[in-house]
Structures are given as C-alpha cells and as structure tokens.
Design a protein that fits this description.
The chain is α/β, with parallel strands linked by helices and 670 residues long. The longest helix is centred in the first third of the chain and has 19 residues, at 55-73.
C-alpha cells in the first residue's frame, strides 16, 4: 500500500489589488520563518499530524522503523542523508551508523547536489578529491580565473582573499553567463552561453597549444594523454568557439595567453561548472588547462573548487558518501575495508552504496523504504522539487533530525530536535582549502534538543550497538586512528595552529599548503602516478530552448541568503528583496513587464508565480532565479533532474522556461 500524500499545505500567497503604476500585482513579501525544534515529534498514524512525544518514545519509533525495513527488505532498503553543516565528528558517526548498525553503504549528503563533480574530477586527475591550494595562495598569485563562480556573493570570505590578491597585483578574469558582482572586479568578463564551458575550455587549450605556450616539460614528465587531448581540442578554433559560446574570439585568445604566460595562476570554480548533467566533464575540462600549463602542484598555482557550506568538504572526508570510507579510502580496496572491519568489528559491503540521486530513484521504485535524514532539506533543495516531495512521502519510514521543522521534516514519521553545529556543538569542520578547524559550543541548546552524536548513538543502542563516546575529541581520535590524512591533527595541534590542512599524517611536521608537489619531482619514483588529461566532449544542456520555452533559466545564490532559506530567512537583511525572476532590460521590454510585476514562469516540469526584476548584468535570452525562498517561489519546481552519470549532480543551471503575463480576473485575483 502506498503512503497517503503528506505534502504540507503550500503557504498562501496573499495578493492585493493590482498596482497600475507598477503594471502588476503586489504580494506579501514576508518570507516564512521557522521556529526552533525543542522537543521530539512523532506521527501517530500514517495520515495524522505530528505531535509532541518523549525522547524515549521518539527514539523507539525511529529505531523500530529502521529495524522493520531492514528485516523485511534487507540492509539496502535503508539510507542516511548526512549534514554538510554539521561537524566532522557527527558525519563520522553517521556514516559509521549506516555501515555498522544498518549494514549498508547507502550514505550521502548535499555534496551530491553541488560539488560531487569536483570530487570526481579531481580524484580522476590527481587521486585526491580536494582543492589543491590554500586561500592564502590566492593573495600571492599572478592571475585568478573565476569560472562559473560569483564568489563575491556565494563565497564572500574567500573573495576577500581574491581582493587582497588583486591589490597585490593579480589580474582576474571572470567566466560566467551573467555579469555578476564578481565579474565587476575582473579585468575581463567572458559572458558565455550556459552549458558551453567545455567548448570554451577546449578553445583556450587549443590556443595555448597553437601558440606554443604549453609547459612542454611538465606535460611530458607529469601527465598522460596529451596527444589525444591535443587532437580532441584541435577543431575548437577561436572562430568556432565564438559561434558556440557567444564569447568574442579576441577575449578567448586573451584569456588563453594570460593564463599560459602567468608565472602562477589560480583557476577557481563553483556550481556554475558542477551543476550540469555533465558536471564532472566540465571539471575535467578545466583541470586540463592546469595540466597543460603546469599551474598545479606549486605555491600560488592550483585548481580550487569553492565549497558553499561550512563542512561539505569534511562530510565527504569523513566517509559520509557511498563510495569512500573515512579519509577518502576506497571501499573497493580490500585493505582499506578490512582495516575498518577490524576496528569496528563488522563486515562492510564490498560495493558502493546509493548516491543521493540513486536514493530518490529507489524511493520511486520501492527499493528504498526507510531514510534517516540529518540536517538536510531535500524536499526543497532537490531538482524537480514536486517529484522529490512525492518520493519522500512514499517512504515507509522517514526520520528527520534537524534544528527546524523544515518542509522535509513536515513529511517525517519521527522528528528529532538537534543542536546547531555552529553554536551549540564541539568538534571540527573542514573548509574548501582542506583546513580542519575547531568549533566550540557557545550556547546551550533550547528545550529538549540534544547533540547530534548523542541522538545517533541512542538510536544505535536500540538497534543493538552500545557506543560510548565521552566527547567529540573521542570521536575525532577514533577517526585519526583510521585516516592517515588526519592522523597528525590532534585537538591540541588544531588549536595551536588555528587549523591544519590535510593531508597531515605526522604529529610533528606541518603539512604543505598545496597538493601534488610530487608532480614536479624529477625522480619517477617520487613523482608517482601521472595526471591524465580528461578526454571530454562538448555536450549541450538537456533541456533545450524552443519556441514554447525560449528562455534559458540559470540559478544561483545571493549574498544575503543561504540555501533554502531555513536558517537565513528568519533574519532581516537590508539587501534581501525576496525571490524574483530576473530578466535583462531587452527581454523585460519584449515581454512588456516591469519591475515588481508578477508573472507565471513555466518549464516542462511545472510553473511558479514570481515578480520581475530587471538586471542589466543578464544578456537577452537568459533569466536568473535562486533557491532561497522556496516557500514563496519554489524555483526547483522548474529545474530538471538531468544528472551527471559520474557524480549524480542535477542540471540546476540550465532549464528552459517561458514567461507569461497574468490576466487580471475579479479585481486582481487569479
């Protein structure tokens, strides 16, 4: 029997009479606010409401549901979504719960939604899934390329380092479909068509080769596949690239020469590269440019994916992904797996688990029956959100552990109130430069809310595993004993040095700030595995524009808001103006719409109502929206679940849409 639809009532859209001066309707712009969870909640019946419960009842119900799913359908009927905002220690215990208590590798996090292609691409090229440089190096480089990254808004702390680099004489190039706040600081903005990053990268690579500017010594000594790569990019002349990407040939040539001739260059990217159906290929195409020029493995020269959440890097490092054990150790490696089996007194499946993408497909098929969701809100963060809610609602058992009653929590059978990792928890987090840093509890949690690790251990105890961790440091020391990359990072050393970057295998020596210096060694034994060029092909977006859906919608972030707005939406900001569909002036005039006018935005998957904003940084045919206000405008009803076959990340950045004016009926009501 399928579970009745528990979709929460969509928040009402309060409308007033049309404002003739603005040419459209006005609505209540106050975002939804979320009240902190202070006590456990359970659902008495399948179609009943959530009610308050004791911790004992809630934990028992949570554990019983997991047990029933496992006993009836096997361990792979269970999956856990871990939290990229929680500590390393929590993520370590969460993935251990999945593998030891439930007996499956079905664990993943929102890393899948954003930077899984970065991890996959970096791992394929270098054997390691982390960015190669430190933030400090951007201050002392000669050239910065921000590709598909509005870091000024999405990564403002990192961008302060970029600005220091510019003040120190670095040149900056911005490659982005929009002329963003970041691009305004650039020496040159290359406004490419959405989804043509590989074409542009190949053209840059071809120009470097034809100009004789590639680092021949480095290519011959440290890479493989150069001849095949050169043949692959040969058709991508500047003329062809201009036709496909929309970037003038002269601007492409300028970027190629500047990047190749710089003594040190940093190539940085964000979700404009990864959130595509071929996100991993996009990453490989950019890494190829670093290999071609030798801009990797040296101080000030590297490739840097910028992570959006405080611990999305650490969650993966801790093994909260389906293919790696803690310390980024491959599950398919017998030696790695056996080490953890001895330490944990268990048997680990010798196969990869489900990715987040796989999990949602398995919900559809009925293969996945129970989910433990910790600190994630996939009901609103997944592409094609209406479909995501339907799939979550079909589960036999959903347990959500969070600090707010999110839309995902509203669908749950059991809701467990947790601590806020950034203010109420001890532990560590890992940022984009692989720096592990301490966090400390400054506040006591409200009401009956409990520490995440304690909650997981309580559920584990009810399933026959009596784990006792005295504190976060005890968890960290267990991780250190199993992960060579983290072994040298004691809490005392982390405090002494204000954080350390992995790999840090030694308790005496400090780690290097950059990775892959081995590639510059002259001794082949020290140099190790060559870095292969990625032979990837240009592949346009899946959701093609046509006469019915003529506009290309791309999505992103704004400076004042965070993800689905659960945490940031309740705080006032002088910058915040809610959700809009942003159009260029030419398109606004063509559709006959003005700022503030509410329109219908439709894709092949759904439709939303949103007011118009006019942004001169957009080009004709391109629209922009964010995911920050899904209770007001659910942008992810429009996005497409076209997933990267390697990393599983959806194509949030390239949907085809149309804009329709609304017809006033009955005094301004629809």
């Amino acid at each position: 029997m399928t579970k009745p639809d528990r979709t929460p009532t969509q928040p009402g859209r309060t409308r007033t009479q049309p404002d003739p001066a603005r040419g459209g309707r006005k609505r209540d712009r106050a975002p939804k606010t979320y009240t902190r969870l202070t006590h456990p909640l359970v659902r008495e019946s399948r179609d009943g409401p959530l009610r308050a419960a004791s911790w004992d009842e809630a934990l028992a119900r949570a554990a019983d549901g997991f047990r029933r799913a496992r006993d009836a359908h096997g361990p792979d009927a269970f999956a856990l979504l871990s939290c990229a905002r929680a500590t390393n220690e929590m993520n370590y215990v969460a993935q251990k719960f999945t593998r030891v208590v439930m007996g499956t590798n079905n664990v993943d996090s929102c890393n899948r939604t954003c930077h899984a292609p970065s991890v996959a691409g970096l791992s394929a090229a270098f054997g390691s899934g982390g960015g190669t440089s430190s933030y400090e190096e951007v201050e002392h480089t000669d050239l910065v390329v921000m590709w598909g990254s509005n870091a000024r808004f999405a990564h403002p702390i990192f961008f302060q380092h970029v600005l220091k680099g510019i003040r120190n004489g670095a040149r900056m190039y911005a490659v982005d479909p929009r002329r963003t706040s970041t691009a305004e600081w650039a020496e040159s903005w290359l406004g490419l068509n959405v989804g043509t990053d590989i074409a542009l990268a190949h053209a840059v690579g071809r120009e470097i080769i034809h100009a004789g500017l590639h680092n021949t010594a480095f290519v011959e000594r440290a890479t493989s596949g150069f001849e095949e790569y050169a043949a692959l990019v040969e058709p991508w002349t500047l003329t062809l690239a201009e036709k496909v990407t929309g970037v003038p040939a002269a601007a492409i040539r300028d970027l190629a020469h500047a990047y190749a001739t710089a003594e040190r260059a940093q190539l940085c990217w964000t979700l404009g590269i990864t959130e595509h159906h071929n996100g991993t290929d996009n990453v490989r195409a950019l890494i190829n440019l670093a290999l071609l020029t030798g801009h990797v493995g040296r101080y000030g020269a590297g490739v840097q994916p910028l992570r959006g959440q405080n611990n999305v890097q650490g969650g993966g490092d801790m093994g909260a992904i389906p293919n790696r054990l803690p310390g980024f150790q491959d599950i398919l490696d017998d030696g790695h797996r056996q080490k953890f089996e001895r330490a944990w007194d268990t048997v680990i499946q010798p196969r990869y688990g489900m990715t987040l993408t796989d999990m949602f497909e398995a919900m559809e098929s009925g293969e996945l029956r129970a989910v433990y969701c910790i600190g994630e809100n996939p009901a609103q963060s997944e592409a094609d959100s209406e479909q995501a809610v339907r799939r979550l609602s079909a589960l036999d058992h959903l347990v959500v552990q969070d600090i707010f009653l999110t839309r995902t929590a509203e669908l749950a059978d059991v809701v467990l109130p947790a601590t806020a990792a950034w203010a109420e928890t001890d532990g560590t987090t890992t940022n984009s430069e692989r720096r592990v840093q301490r966090v400390r509890a400054a506040l006591a949690p409200p009401g009956e809310a409990r520490e995440d690790i304690d909650i997981i251990c309580e559920v584990a105890a009810r399933l026959g595993h009596d784990w006792k961790f005295a504190d976060a440091e005890t968890v960290w020391n267990e991780l250190r004993s199993l992960s060579p990359d983290h072994f040298g990072m004691t809490y005392d050393r982390l405090e002494e040095h204000h954080g350390l970057q992995w790999p840090c295998p030694d308790t005496e020596r400090l780690p290097s700030s950059f990775l892959h210096g081995r590639l510059w060694e002259t001794d082949p034994a020290l140099r190790g595995r060559r870095a292969p060029f990625g032979l990837v092909k240009d592949d346009p977006p899946v959701d093609l524009t046509d006469e019915s859906f003529p506009l290309r919608l791309t999505t992103g972030r704004r400076l004042d808001s965070y993800n689905t707005g659960v945490q940031s939406g309740s705080f006032a900001s002088p910058l915040r103006r809610g959700e809009y569909v942003e159009l260029c002036p030419e398109d606004a005039e063509r559709y006959g719409v003005v700022v503030g006018e509410e329109v219908r935005v439709s894709s092949r998957r759904g439709a939303v109502l949103a007011p118009v904003w006019v942004d001169p940084g957009l080009r004709p045919g391109l629209a922009f929206m964010t995911m920050h206000f899904p209770d007001e405008v659910d942008t992810n009803q429009l996005t497409i679940e076209a997933n990267c076959p390697i990393a599983g990340t959806a194509e949030f950045k390239a949907s085809a849409i149309r804009i329709e004016k609304l017809t006033a009926v009955g005094g301004g009501q629809l």
